Amino acid sequence: MIWVDLFSIACIVLGCFFYLAGTVGLLRLPDVFTRLHALTKADNLGLGLIVLGAIVQIGDWMINLKLVLIWGLVMIASATVAHLIARRALQQTQAAEEERA
Question: pTM here?
Answer without folding.
Answer: 0.86
